[in-house]
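Worked example 2:
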Amino acid sequence: MSDSDIEIVVDDPTAPEADSPAVTDTRVVDVAVSVLLVVLAATLGYDNWRTGISWDSTGPQAGYFPFYLSIILAGASLYGLASAFTARNEISETFVTRAQLRRVMQVFVPTLLFCLATQFLGLYVASFLLIAIFMRMVGRIALWKSLLTAFLFTAIMFVTFDIAFDVIMPKGPLEAAFGY
């Protein structure tokens, strides 16, 4: 047996259960995303039409190309809707199970909270909290390793962006207290 024929199987003890109930199927997601994209295309199309979609003496107006891109987006989305509705007789696959959705939410919710915390605490404090909490809660890594890694990463990020490259980053009350 060659090395390329060897398959290593590792069981993931945190993997979602195989018998977890379905939350939704692919047809529902296809329809929902297509409808959202049609609404987005209509909004973009209207806004670019309002800006100007014709040619003037200097060439195309600001909304010319984006308007036609929104038309293409709307057409593709309507095609997706039509495909989803014409395939109603086919068996739809499960899009996500309850266990899979739980794992996705374990990443999505802290990331959303990170975005909100950045507005009030600044990028560096919010990054420290996100990394430390992720490592501890999701990765189940020792508290001291989580705190040390979060601190080192945040400190390196601060030195790189604020000091070395002088890039303006969102700052909070902690940075203000230190004069940054």
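The mean pLDDT is 90. Residues 23 and 152 are 39 Å apart (CA to CA).
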